[in-house]
Amino acid sequence: MQERHDAPLAPLTTFRLGGPAARLITATTDDEVIAAVREADAAGTPLLLIGGGSNLVIGDKGFPGTALVIATKGFALTGTRLELAAGEVWTDAVARTVTAGLAGIECLAGIPGSAGATPIQNVGAYGQEVSSTITEVIAYDRRTHETVTIPNADCAFSYRHSRFKADPDRHVVLRVRFELEDAGGLSAPVKYAETARALGVEPGDRVPLAAARETVLKLRSGKGMVLDPEDHDTWSAGSFFTNPILTDAEFAEFHARVRARLGDDAEPPAYPAGEGHTKTSAAWLIDKAGFGKGYGTGPARISGKHTLALTNRGGATTEDLLELAREVVAGVREAFGVTLVNEPVTVGVSL
Question: Is 160 in the active site?
Fold first, then answer.
C-alpha cells in the first residue's frame, strides 16, 4: 500500500475540488483494502472511500481522517458471466464487454468512475441500470468483520439507490458480478427514446453492440458527460441532481404550478415510476426555473452543454459550487414546489 500525509484530494475527483486528506492510502488488492478499513475502524478514524472520484463533492477544508483509494484490478469473463474488481475503470470494462460481443451494459458507456461504485448508486443511463445485470456484490462487512456475498435480491436496488447507499458506513464493495447476454453481437433491446432516434430504430429494437456504445458516447459527449481534461464542461460529477419522483398528489400540485407559470398548454415531462408515482426531469425543472446552459458568472457554473451538470470552470472552490447548487435548488423550489436532491456524495459539506 502507498501512504501519504496531508495529501491533496482535488486531483482524485472529476470536479477537481476539495481540500487535503490527513492521510491517503492507495490499496491495490482486496486484502489491502480490508486491512486499511480494519485499521481505521479499530482506531476510530474517519474513513473516506475513493474510487474514480466522479461522484464526490469534498469540502474545501478536506478530510480529517483516512482517505482510501481503491485501485484494485480484475476483469474476469467466463461465458456470459463477468466479475469486476471494485477499482476497475467502468467505461473501460464496458468497452471490453462490447468487444467480447456481450450485451447488457453497452448503454452505460462513458460513465466515469469505478466498477465498485456502480451498485452503490445503481448506476444507470440511456435505458439501462446495473441492477438489471448484477447478480452478486462481494463486500467487506464493517459490522461483522467478514467478507460477504450479497445477491441482487438483497441489494435493495431502486432508482439511483441501494442498500449500500442507504447505509454507507457498513459495506465496502470489493467485487461485482454480472450476468450479460450473448445476442449474437447485438445489443439489448434499446429502451431509451433518444438513443433509438439517434440510431434510427424503434424502441425495443436491437442494434450492433458497437453502434449502441458509440451512439451513447456521442450523445454523452454532446452533453459534456464524457471526461475531457481540456473541456471544463466535463469538470463535473455528471448529473448533479436526481430526477424527482412525485406521488400522484404531489405531481398534480406540480402540474398546476407548471401551467400557472408557463401557460395552460404547458406539459412537464412525466414517466411512470411505480404505482402512485411519477418521475419528472430535473434538467427540465432547472431550465424552466431560469437556469439555462452556462448559467452563472463565477468560477462554478452550469454546464454550457447540459443544465443538469454543475461545473468547475477552473479556479473554483467547493463553496463556489455549493452556492450555485443552493441557488438552483431554491429557484426550482420557488418556481415549482419541487425540492431537488443532489446525486453526488458530499464530504464535510452539505447543501
Answer: yes
142-172: pLDDT as tens digits: 999 999 999 999 999 999 999 999 999 999 9
Does the annotation count 275 as an active-site position? no
Which of 54, 187, 236, 239 is catalytic? The answer is 239
Q: Quick one: CA dihedral 304, 224, 222, 134, positive or negative?
A: negative
In terms of pTM, does the model score above 0.85? yes
Strand residue runs (E) in the chain: 2-8, 20-27, 47-50, 56-58, 63-70, 75-78, 81-85, 124-125, 128-129, 134-141, 146-151, 171-179, 245-247, 271-272, 277-279, 300-302, 310-312, 345-347
Query: CA torsion angle for 159, 163, 165, 170 (degrees, to 10)?
Result: -170
142 part of the active site: no
Question: Most distant CA pair in the chain: distance in Å?
Answer: 62
Q: Find the catalytic residue in 16, 160, 177, 301.
A: 160
Using CA atoms, how far residue 92 sits from 31, 59, 145, 291, 329, in Å, is 24, 29, 31, 34, 34
